Amino acid sequence: MRLSQLAVHYARVSALFPAVVLWISSTNSPVPLYSRRMRLLILGAGGVGSAAALIAARRSFLTGVVMADYDTARAERAATATGDPRFTAIGLDASDQPAVERAIVEHRVDAVLGATDPRFTMPIFRAALATGIHYVDMAMSLSRPHPDDPFRLTGVKLGDEQFALSDQWSASGRMALVGMGVEPGLADVFARYAADHLFSEIDEAGVRDGANLVVEGYEFAPSFSIWTTIEECLNPPVIYEKDRGWFTTEPFSEPEIFDFPEGIGPVECVNVEHEEVLLIPRWVDAKRVTFKYGLGQQFIDVLKTLHLLGLDSTTPVRVGGVDVSPRDVVAACLPDPATLGDRMTGKTCAGLWVRGTGVDGNPRSTYLYHVVDNEWSMREYGAQAVVWQTAVNPIVALELVASGRWQGAGVLGPEAFDPVPFLDLLSGAYDSPWGRQELPA
């Protein structure tokens, strides 16, 4: 049975508006957006952005897609790889908000998908607000640790800069859908689904991410952006508890073994800073929210060494008369994750472990998950599993926005919407099923 065939009542959050309009810059007149057609700007043509293009090329709701990147040639390669005349390419610096605004107006796009690393989230976010279009990202605005007590108290949290502008977004009638990758993103959709359909009370919603991916020929080759990985793994992890609010702990704390499904098996997971912990409690009633990542001891040791040497720093240092960021140097020395697919084997799993009281009143422990096999994603799309799994979710979400099945205004997380249409579309038209595993309660 399809999820949409279930008779359910879904109470929308009060922040949602009954309709959303798009501002057409050439006429300055509001017209309904929900025509099932959309022009999209994808800003960032790296691994995730390129995979998003390949996925979007198979969907008819897009009338045109502009691929944009600081490296124009990379944007052109991503557009050409789709083999679709709807895709064009431009050079664009995501850190230059006025330039992003000009590109939005010139190419008459209805929405922008930020596929850059999170350093550039805010210029893109502000440009979308200034030009009156919808916005989607997969990584929220950056955090800053508490200056005096970083491993106990939060400082500036992930997404704080974006939520500070929520009233302006609401007044504009446009939607800023934040954290809409896989984690954050699909895991947050799972949280909404668990609260609506599986649990009457949630004791803990814990994101658990693990994989058994192996990259042949490399001693150390991250399957995702090392810049972003350093940022989220070495910052103080955030935990949420209902009676305490948000607080922090030491990086890599509270290790546990989690047994991942579909042959991946047991992986040690540790606390890592991630957006789900900041998003889920805003819309889902849960006593505790956590995020734990299956990194492996070698990965943790490398990250600790980078930190010890100061190579995780983003502050430029002077080398031979040139200012360079140590973290950018590390990223440049490692292989591009987008190019590793043909050397990679195994599966990656993203999911949410929910514990509490089921709708039948009995204790319940359920893992909602999504697994992508690298062999499948390479065969079907030519994209490695981790970037494909991240990229598919914002395209699904944009299709729901274009069709009017997801409506809203303001800065909203995936939890603000009915999860059923999303999960149906993901497992149906996008041919990427999700799973559910009952665990001992």
Tell me about this structure:
The model is unreliable at 1-34 (pLDDT under 50). With 441 residues, the protein is of the alpha/beta class. Strands 9, 11, 12, 13, 14, 15, 19, 20 and 22 form a 9-stranded mixed sheet that branches. Helix 13 crosses helix 14 (419-427). The chain contains 14 helices and 22 strands. The protein has helices at residues 47-56, 72-81, 97-106, 121-131, 160-163, 166-172, 186-198, 226-234, 276-283, 297-309, 326-333, 374-381, 385-403, 419-427; strands spanning 21-24, 29-32, 38-43, 62-69, 87-91, 111-114, 134-137, 175-177, 199-211, 214-215, 238-241, 245-248, 256-260, 265-271, 288-293, 317-319, 322-324, 344-345, 347-358, 363-373, 410-412, 435-438. The protein folds into 2 domains: 3-177, Rossmann fold (3-Layer(aba) Sandwich); 186-389, Dihydrodipicolinate Reductase, domain 2.
CATH class of the largest domain: Alpha Beta
Mean pLDDT: 90
Task: Describe the main β-sheet briefly.
Answer: 9 strands, mixed
The CATH topology annotation of the largest domain reads as Dihydrodipicolinate Reductase, domain 2
Number of domains: 2
Radius of gyration (CA) equals 21 Å
Find the count of extended strands (DSSP E, 2+ residues): 22
Beta fraction: 25-35%
- What overall geometry do the principal axes of the alpha carbons give? globular
- Please give the alpha-carbon distance between the first and last residues: 26 Å
Number of helices: 14
Percent helix, as a range, is 25-40%
